Amino acid sequence: MRTKATMILLPALLAACAPAMMTPPNAGTVDGLFLQAMTGSNLFEIQSSQVALSKSNTAAVRTYAQMLINHHTAAQNQVSTLAAARACRCPRPCPRTAAEGFGALRAECRRV
Question: In this structure, how many other beta carbons lie within 10 angstroms of the beta carbon of residue 67?
């Protein structure tokens, strides 16, 4: 049952981040849309990997989660640099609804 809830929550959380990815300025440009989409994707991967890191007791899962956090943090640093160069504002955190969803995901996940 928990696995089903997790499988439903993860796509819903990504979808909750989507509106924040499309906020102006420069949302109408290809560069702006790309940078905002990448920001939403990176933030989602970082936050969902933090859940996995905090809930897992399995070394392989924890190692993989930390690798995802490291890689997506580095990628987001590059995206932020590009966004600043193109005067494109990218969302900082996922919206409140996504944050609430991550809270529910944390509650649903059992330690594995």
Answer: 11
Q: Which of 47, 50, 55, 51 is closest to 95 using CA atoms?
A: 47
Comparing CA positions, the residue from 10, 82, 89, 16 lying closest to residue 45 is 10
Per-block mean pLDDT, blocks of 10 residues, the chain (112 long): 55 54 58 83 90 91 96 94 82 59 62 48
Instruction: Tell me how many domains the chain contains.
Output: 1
Give the C-alpha separation, 75 to 98, whole Å.
Answer: 21
Q: Cis omega before residue 95 (within 30°)?
A: no
> Where in the sequence is the domain holding 38, given as residue range(s)?
2-108
Predicted model pTM:
0.65
Q: Taking a C-beta distance cutoff of 8 angstroms, is the pair 51, 63 a contact?
A: no
Cα 23 to Cα 7, 61, 81, 87, 103, distances in angstroms: 27, 34, 18, 13, 24
Vertex 2: Cα angle to 12 and 69 (nearest 5)? 60
